[in-house]
Amino acid sequence: LPEALKTLADQLEKTERLKKNVRGALMYPAVILFAMLGVAIFLFIEVVPTLSRTLRDLHIPLPFQTRVVIGIGDAFTQYGLLIGIVAVILVAGIVMLVRRVPGARDWRDAIFLRIPIVGTILVQTNVALTARTLSSLLTSGVSLVESLSITAKVIQHRSFRHILAAALPKVEKGVTLSAIFHEAQPLYPVLVSAMIEVGEETG
To answer: How far apart are CA 27 and CA 20, in angstroms?
Structure first.
């Protein structure tokens, strides 16, 4: 029991450290995204209207892309407050939808996986958390089936959680863990299944 509790304490400490590292890693792309959004809004409100007046005074035909940009700038200038209110309502509605509809959470998590940088960080974080949790539980003498069940509850990302939950009946039927993770690519990289297969062969 003392050894199991020590292993659990180490696992919780590593998990907390991993979460802090992930939050720090996500801070940079979040700041860049908000900065780009702020610059875009400033350009549409301040720069584009001035440019559009100059171009209209020249009385020259404008490319389609330029007319679209000018149109967006005019919309921000004339209906900026309305656009802001609609955006807030839309974001609030999406947040409420994700919280209340279980299927929407799956959709949200799947979208995050496709975002550059963010998706890579999420994959690496959940793979590391899966490996650490399974390792700690198995080292403590917990059965493989029970370890998978507990790990599925620990993982927060629903895409990874579904994979682990679906693995339970397969393991009970005798399917190897390496084969299960091999089928779970690209969420679980091929290195994961390869390392597990080595462990299964060597015992």
So the answer is: 11
Q: Any alpha helices (H) in the chain, and if so which ranges?
A: 2-42, 48-58, 64-100, 102-113, 118-139, 144-154, 158-172, 177-183, 190-202
Q: Quote the CA–CA distance of 48 and 40 in Å, as a whole number.
A: 10
Measure the CA–CA gap between 83 and 91, rounded to whole angstroms.
12
3-state SS class at 155: coil
Cα–Cα distance measured from residue 65 to residue 31, given in angstroms and rounded to the nearest whole number: 28
Give the mean pLDDT per block of 10 residues along the chain (203 residues): 59 71 75 86 82 78 82 83 88 81 78 82 84 82 86 86 88 86 85 82 71
At 95, is the secondary structure helix, strand, or coil? helix
Q: Of 94, 43, 95, 113, which is closest to residue 72 (Cα–Cα)? A: 43
pTM, whole model, 2 decimals? Answer: 0.64
Tokens of 123: 């994959």
